[in-house]
Specification:
The complex is a heterodimer of chains A (476) and B (163).
Chain A lengths: L6 E2 L4 E4 L9 E4 L2 H6 L2 H10 L5 E12 L6 E7 L6 E3 L10 E10 H6 L1 H11 L14 H10 L1 H6 L5 H4 L18 H7 L12 E10 L2 H7 L5 E8 L2 H18 L14 E3 L3 H35 L6 E7 L1 E10 L2 E10 L2 E2 L18 E4 L7 E6 L10 E2 L9 H7 L2 H10 L3 E4 L2 H6 L8 H10 L3 E14 L1
Parallel strand pairs in A: 3-4, 18-19
Antiparallel strand pairs in A: 1-2, 2-3, 4-5, 5-13, 6-10, 7-9, 7-11, 8-9, 8-19, 12-13, 14-17, 15-16, 16-19
Helix pairs in contact in A: 4-11, 5-11, 8-10, 10-11
Chain B lengths: L1 E6 L16 E5 L4 E7 L2 H16 L10 E9 L2 H19 L1 E13 L2 E12 L2 H4 L7 E2 L5 E4 L5 E8 L1
Antiparallel strand pairs in B: 1-5, 2-3, 3-9, 4-6, 5-6, 7-9, 8-9
Helix pairs in contact in B: 1-2
The chains are: A alpha+beta (476), B alpha+beta (163).
């Protein structure tokens, strides 16, 4: 990226003053090298976001930001509905409420190693993954509407989990404002057999080992000890979310002009929050968030089933569940005044600090767990939201490593079988539905996650609590 | 009504390197994949782009047998939106039907409201072993979306797909 227009604005923070149609500045959290390595498209897309009506404070990017759809992936922007603020389907993305869930197992990684191959094979068999996979549930229209209204609460009510799980999910497992009737029949049809499926691409299920603790106090509160095994899921709202994103992106692209919004990029399609389309989108999007939460809850049920059979000593218990493609109505302090804002996080994780009212009592003093997914060959991280007197990017942090190489480039460079064999030599058992898919997801195609997380900490977005490395990886 | 043309694909073997005679290719996007098709008419370019998308989803799209047909119809104010709808409707058919497709017989007509597309798509149920699926496409996007005539009189249709 051409960095000449950016000036240092704090540790690992960079600011570009508004020019032209920009209403607010751009703030990027990254170290100098990460900033330089970002695609010029990130700057261009942030410039466009900074010009949208009703934007508050700044258009933000996280250290893992890269070229996205209208918004950069790793982008955060908040809008004030009372000031003509907008909601953007592109600012949420096609995989609505894609997110990460980590479970504590209560067993040592050595116990996993003793049955590693068996566990990998059984998980690969039980977890529906990859193109065209179907879940064990077939939902009738009424059940689908109940799922869209209830989220993980619906799943727990059906016996796929326990009430305690809900305390460890954003929105307590059910996002308010969901309007199943605003979800199209086509979107519902796409989902009727897809609840409890992992998906493909960068989605995964991993069994991981806690290998490093950075903050003993928070680690204790989170239940993390060195050597412990944890299970982490990365997936989203499946076909339903994709369809809602597709339909509303198109509708907003044609409706924006009617609201006097000039789109520099059609992908930035947006409408006022207080418009009919805006309200319908928010209701449908909240239903898709619930779909993602239900999906991860049903997958959790499947994971528990496998562990109960093979490692009965393990009791997978939720650490936390975060979504990183969302638009949520939140209260934030802006220039000393509380304001209700619609915060878009596209490839960015909410990171509420200690004492936030949404946190369960046992996490109250330590901040929200922020789960950062790595690749199948590198570390992942568990961070904690920081809070503090100066809120950064409306309490947001990074979400993953971010690609540095296209899928096509990765395929030319690596072979899936070789990637799998190399990882196995390093003690990581990988099971994937496709060798080509494994090549596309080769660890080398991603940015250095250690650097991304270090920059997030230096910039004050979140603090490191623990680092985990994979033992088993199931890819779609 | 102005006739815009028809086009279909022959199911040539896929290749990222685009051997002579192939009518589609993939192009670079940092996180995802760009698909591009071309042909004598917009309809032929749409059909070729669909083939490019199948080659993102499957490692062996040439092994899809033409056993069943389905139809897709959509309409839009301009050719670019029509292309967006075409690919997304095709994804919906594949996702809900558990099917994959190889041949795309596309007809596009222009009328007072814009453009309408009808297509007969030919394929079969997904067979993981034979078709070797790689990755789901979540949606065709507006990124790098273009449908335009080229200097030689042929047409090009392209966009980035989110995987």
């Amino acid at each position: 990226m051409e960095t000449g227009r950016y000036t240092a604005a704090g540790p690992d923070a960079w600011r570009r003053e508004p020019t032209g149609a920009m209403r607010v500045p751009i703030i990027i959290y990254a170290d100098r090298e990460q900033l330089r390595a970002m695609d010029d498209k990130v700057d261009e897309q942030l410039e466009h976001v900074a010009g949208l009506p009703g934007i508050v404070n700044a258009a933000y990017a996280m250290p893992d930001a890269h070229w996205g759809y209208g918004f950069p992936i790793g982008g955060v922007a908040a809008f004030d509905a009372d000031a003509g603020g907008v909601v953007s389907a592109g600012g949420v993305g096609f995989d609505i409420s894609c997110g990460v869930r980590t479970m504590l197992t209560g067993v040592h990684a050595d116990e996993i190693r003793s049955r590693q191959r068996l566990l990998a094979d059984r998980l690969a068999r039980e977890i529906p993954a990859g193109v065209g996979s179907r879940g064990f549930l077939h939902l009738k229209p009424r059940e689908l509407d109940e799922m869209l209204a209830g989220g993980a609460r619906w799943a727990v009510g059906r016996g796929y989990g326990v009430k305690r799980d809900l305390e460890r999910i954003e929105e307590r497992g059910c996002m308010a404002g969901a309007e199943p009737e605003w979800v199209s029949e086509r979107a519902k049809k796409r989902q009727q057999d897809e609840v409890g499926t992992l998906g493909s691409g960068n989605h995964y299920l991993e069994v991981q080992e806690v290998v490093e603790i950075f903050a003993a106090d928070a680690a204790r509160a989170f239940g993390l000890r060195c050597g412990d095994a944890v299970v982490t899921l990365h997936c989203g709202s499946r076909g339903l979310g994709h369809q809602i994103g597709t339909e509303f992106l198109r509708e907003m692209a044609t409706a924006a002009g009617r609201h006097g919004i000039v789109l520099p990029d059609r992908e930035l399609a947006c409408v006022p929050v207080q418009s009919e389309t805006g309200r319908r989108y928010l209701g449908a999007m909240a239903a898709a968030v619930n779909c993602a939460l239900a999906n991860r809850q049903v997958l959790t049920h499947l994971v528990r089933g496998v562990f109960a059979e093979l490692l009965p000593a393990a009791e997978p218990d939720l650490l936390y569940d975060v979504s990183h493609n969302t638009c949520k109505k939140e209260t934030h302090l802006v220039d000393g005044h509380e304001r209700q804002l619609h915060v878009h996080r596209k490839g960015a994780t909410r990171s509420f600090g200690p004492k936030h009212s949404s946190l369960p009592p046992e996490l109250h003093d330590h901040g929200q767990p922020v789960l950062i997914g790595g690749t199948m060959g590198t570390s992942s991280y568990i961070l904690a939201g920081l809070g503090g007197p100066v809120e950064r990017a409306f309490s947001s942090a990074c979400h993953g490593a971010g690609r540095t190489m296209s899928r096509r480039q990765a395929c030319k460079r690596w072979r899936g079988r070789a990637v799998m064999d190399e990882l196995e030599r390093r003690g990581i058992i990988v099971r994937g539905a496709s060798f080509k898919g494994l090549a596309e997801e080769a660890p080398g195609a991603y940015k250095d996650i250690d650097g991304v997380v270090a920059a997030a900490e230096t910039a004050g977005l979140a603090r490191r609590v623990a680092r985990v490395t994979p033992l088993i990886c199931i890819k779609g | 009504m102005k006739f815009v043309g028809t086009g279909s694909t022959s199911g040539l073997p896929p290749s990222d390197t685009r051997p002579e005679g192939n009518s589609w290719e993939h192009f670079h996007h940092e996180a995802d994949v760009g698909i591009r098709g071309w042909g004598a008419t917009p309809a032929a370019a749409f059909a070729a782009a669909a083939e490019a998308m199948m080659a993102v989803i499957l490692a062996a799209p040439h092994r899809v047998e033409p056993r069943e047909t389905a139809t897709i119809s959509c309409r839009a104010a301009d050719l670019e939106l029509l292309f967006y709808d075409w690919l997304n409707d095709l994804l919906w058919e594949m996702d809900t039907g558990g099917r994959v497709y190889r041949r795309f017989e596309v007809t596009i007509a222009e009328n007072r409201e814009g453009f309408s597309l009808t297509a007969v798509i030919v394929g079969e149920p997904l067979d993981r072993r034979r078709h070797r699926p790689v990755v789901e496409v979540k949606g065709a996007t507006f990124t790098a979306l273009a449908v335009r005539g080229r200097d030689d009189g042929s047409w090009l249709a392209q966009c980035v797909v989110d995987v």
